[in-house]
């Protein structure tokens, strides 16, 4: 599905690609907006988006502007992305949404929930940390579109589970799929996304402002956003829950898809949504 959404940075409408999980979007159903990480796109949510779309939810797995199949200029800060989400919500004629974000997308969900409380029904933060400093060599490589950046992100994002070829989906290569995805996204988007994460400093302050049901899903082998850092975010949000997954790195929704799904369903029960 294509949405026309205005970005405040240049006051232009851009065509934004969203996956609806294989079902037609229905504004009468509870809506989940899935937010991808830096250098990625909506496809990282294929398993989760399809599951909920076929169980009386409406799903929008978006490609951020300048990412995936969406046109326009990449949004350069977490704050700018967070202020763009309300325009997505309004563009489909709904009043509330649940935000599920991974890595950069988790920071966007966190900041959006703090800034736009009346629009956010609940948030799930996957692979999250109050600050996401990026290794200098990785940041430099990503900003010059050096393939080394794709290799570094792929290696550091997966636990031993992914490195040894184990996968919950037969025939799926976690490592190969990650590199292929980052090679397919528009040039420059990984560098812009990683720089946005590296520059963001408002995580704990935003967490203290969040007042909706919150779940933090963390991997015990996450090298990009260590689980202890995710727990700091959860502790700063009143009533937030954490779900720590064993044998799991940063790519939680792919490495341990089934347990990630169980944690998401737990969040939806907390906000009185049954599926």
The fraction of residues in strands falls at: 15-25%
Tell me the structural class.
alpha/beta
* Lateral strand order in the biggest sheet: 1-2-4-3-5-6-7-8
- Gap between N and C termini, in Å? 24 Å
Radius of gyration over all CA atoms, rounded: 17 Å
User: Number of DSSP helices?
Assistant: 12
The second-level CATH architecture is: 3-Layer(aba) Sandwich
CATH class assignment:
Alpha Beta
> What's the count of strands?
8
The third-level CATH topology is: Rossmann fold
User: How many domains comprise the coordinates?
Assistant: 1
CATH superfamily: Alpha/Beta hydrolase fold, catalytic domain
The ordered string of helix (H) and strand (E) elements is EEEHEHEHEHHHHHHEHEHH
Tell me about the largest β-sheet. 8 strands, mixed
Helix content range: 40-55%
* Chain-averaged pLDDT: 92
What does this structure look like?
It is built from 12 helices and 8 strands. With 275 residues, the protein is an alpha/beta fold. It has a single domain, classed as Rossmann fold. An 8-stranded mixed beta sheet has the order 1-2-4-3-5-6-7-8, with helices on both faces. Helix 2 packs across helix 3, helix 3 crosses helix 9 and helix 4 runs antiparallel to helix 8. The longest helix is centred in the N-terminal third of the chain and has 14 residues. The radius of gyration is 17 Å and the shape is globular. The protein starts with a strand and ends in a 5-residue tail after the last helix.
């Amino acid at each position: 599905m294509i949405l026309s959404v205005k970005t405040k940075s240049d006051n232009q409408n851009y065509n934004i690609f969203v996956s609806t999980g294989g079902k037609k979007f229905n504004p009468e159903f509870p809506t989940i907006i899935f937010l991808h990480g830096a250098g990625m796109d909506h496809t990282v949510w294929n398993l989760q988006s399809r599951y909920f779309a076929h169980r009386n939810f409406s799903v929008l797995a978006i490609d951020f502007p300048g990412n995936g199949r969406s046109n326009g200029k990449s949004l350069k800060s977490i704050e700018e992305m967070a202020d763009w989400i309300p325009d997505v919500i309004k563009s489909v004629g709904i009043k509330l949404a649940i935000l599920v974000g991974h890595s950069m997308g988790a920071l966007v969900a966190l900041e959006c929930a703090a800034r736009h409380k009346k629009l956010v029904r609940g948030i799930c933060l996957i692979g999250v940390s109050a600050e996401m400093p990026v290794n200098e060599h990785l940041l430099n490589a990503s900003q010059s579109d050096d393939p080394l950046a794709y290799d570094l992100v792929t290696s550091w994002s997966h636990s031993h589970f992914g490195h040894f070829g184990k996968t919950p989906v037969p025939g799926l290569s976690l490592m190969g799929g990650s590199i292929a995805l980052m090679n397919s996204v528009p040039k420059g988007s990984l560098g812009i996304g990683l720089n946005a994460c590296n520059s963001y400093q408002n995580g704990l302050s935003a967490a203290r402002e969040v007042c909706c049901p919150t779940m933090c899903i963390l991997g015990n082998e996450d090298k990009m956003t260590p689980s202890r850092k995710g727990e700091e975010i959860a502790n700063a949000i009143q009533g937030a829950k954490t779900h720590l997954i064993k044998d799991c790195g940063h790519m939680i929704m792919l490495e341990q898809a089934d347990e990630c799904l169980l944690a998401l369903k737990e969040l939806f029960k907390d906000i009185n949504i049954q599926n």
